[in-house]
Amino acid sequence: MKCETPTESTGPSGEAKHDFSWLADLKSCPPPDAQPIDGTFYVFHDFDPPSTEADFRTAAQRGQFESLDECARRSNSVWSDLAALKGRVADLKKRYPLRPFYISEGHVKKEHGVVKDSDKSHCSFWVCGRTCMHAIFKRRVV
């Protein structure tokens, strides 16, 4: 997937244009209930600043959660609530005490991709093909 700086790209009626060609091999991906959204979200990563090679890889790219839906595995995890993500990271630190964890925030815009709520604060985020997670989530908060 090509990573570029997010751009303000809209269609003739003002709707966000999305390129999900990197998901063309999957049927109905992203799912129809995933929606473009404007808002602040949070992510965790291992490197500061985030590594373009290791951070923000999907579960499919990491070879994890192989029993889950492939479309969901190709999304990035983002959180809408910083406190909830801090709790998740605290749990991970107990399991992996030597692994560093950093949290960054970013303002997701409608043209960046689509989001589907997974639970109260965790969301699946399908990044549009012309957008890069590294360009969105630049400000480290923890």
Describe the structure.
The chain is an alpha+beta fold and 142 residues long. It has a domain at 33-49 and 68-140. It has four helices and six strands. It has a three-stranded antiparallel beta sheet with strand order 1-3-6. The protein has a three-stranded antiparallel beta sheet with strand order 2-5-4. The chain is globular, with a radius of gyration of 15 Å.
Pick out its properties.
142 residues, alpha+beta, three-stranded antiparallel beta sheet, disordered N terminus
Sum this structure up briefly:
The chain has 142 residues and is an alpha+beta fold.
By helix and strand content, what is the structural category?
alpha+beta
Classify the beta-strand content into a percent band.
15-25%
Order of helices and strands: EHHEHEEEHE
**CA gyration radius, whole angstroms:** 15 Å
Spans of at least 5 consecutive residues with low confidence: 1-12
Biggest sheet: strand arrangement: 1-3-6
**How would a crystallographer describe the biggest sheet?**
3 strands, antiparallel
Mean pLDDT: 88
Helix content: 10-25%
Find the count of extended strands (DSSP E, 2+ residues): 6
How many DSSP helices? 4
Shape type: globular
Separation of the first and last Cα atoms: 28 Å
